[in-house]
Design brief:
The protein is α/β, with parallel strands linked by helices. The chain has 10 helices and 9 strands. The protein has a 6-stranded parallel β-sheet with strand order 1-4-3-2-5-6, with helices on both faces. The chain has a 3-stranded antiparallel β-sheet with strand order 7-8-9. Helix 9 packs antiparallel against helix 10. The protein is globular. The N and C termini lie far apart (40 Å). Pantoate (PAF) binds next to strand 2 and helix 6. Pantoate binds next to strand 2 and helix 6.
């Protein structure tokens, strides 16, 4: 793996790759890589001839009271893991390389899809995500970009941005990778204490309970949400931020759930915010 912290050198390399007719697959990340990211790299290898991964903890997508300073970072380990999974180029810009004029000079505005779910509780978050992803698309000019489904609303917004701004990048969204006990992999999981790690399981259990209720015939979106909320409340330590049963295209709550409706949850365990979702089947 070749590491680039400058935009110009990365662009030069990628121009040569493009000229040689290679398809470029991009996996944007914030580092602190786990098996979920590594599977995105595997997927990217199948979709392109050369895999570019970016590692950039984007200050623009963190609120003032959020965990930007506490977000885990481990570049040496990340480079080793990326190398092991066939990443050719690792783009690791400093903040000044990405935002030489400071952040907030020009932003991509996420629009109404960002007004619900996580966006309701994290004002400006998705503007920050879309701005950095737009920059990464313009820097790398990938043929295809791969994202994880755990960040469901993010994936919907990125697809919407690509459509609305005509990026001409194909967006691939990969299934969530879980630990053997069901917890969705997340870079933030390393911030959970052993005790909190046990309580974090309330999140996947809530999704499983809702799926069981759906399988048993419950179709009311509100009732399914109450089932999930009940599991989180019963845990005692996990604090529910939201649970919604939504239409995966509009992100609107559904009155009547159907196969393909998505249950999305956000909860705090200690000061760690966890999100997860499940497509009802
Ligand atoms: O999902 C993430 O890790 C980030 O939101 C992303 C897409 C890399 C943008 O900073």
């Amino acid at each position: 793996v070749q590491t680039y912290d400058g935009i110009a050198a990365l662009r030069e390399r990628l121009s040569a790759e493009r000229a040689a007719g290679r398809r470029i697959a991009l996996v944007p990340t914030m580092g602190s890589l786990h098996e979920g990211h590594l599977r995105l790299f595997d997927r990217a290898r199948g979709l392109g001839d050369i895999v570019v991964a970016s590692i950039f903890v984007n200050p623009l997508q963190f609120g003032p009271a959020e965990d930007f300073d506490r977000y885990p970072r481990d570049l040496d380990r990340d480079a080793e893991l990326a190398r092991g999974r066939g990443v050719a180029c690792l783009f690791t810009p400093a903040t000044g390389e990405m935002y030489p004029s400071g952040p907030n000079r020009v932003l991509v505005r996420a629009g109404p899809l960002a007004e619900r779910l996580c966006g309701r509780y994290r004002p400006g978050h998705f503007d920050g995500v879309l701005t950095v992803v737009a920059k990464l698309f313009n820097i790398v000019r990938p043929d295809v970009a791969v994202f994880g489904r755990k960040d469901f609303q993010q994936a919907v917004l990125i697809r919407a941005m690509v459509e609305e701004l005509n990026f001409g990048v194909s967006v691939d969204v990969a299934p969530t990778t879980r630990e053997s006990d069901g917890l969705a992999m997340s870079s933030r999981n390393v911030r959970l204490s052993a005790d909190e790690r046990a309580h974090a399981l309330a999140v996947p259990r809530a999704l499983e309970a809702a799926q069981r209720a759906f399988t048993a015939g419950e179709r009311s979106g509100a009732a399914l949400a109450r089932v999930a909320a009940g599991v989180i409340e019963a845990d005692g330590a996990a604090q529910l931020q939201y649970v919604h049963v939504i239409d995966p295209r509009t992100l609107d709550d559904v009155e009547e759930a159907a196969a393909g409706s998505v249950m999305a949850i956000a909860a705090f365990v200690g000061d760690v915010r966890l999100i997860d979702n499940h497509v009802l089947t």
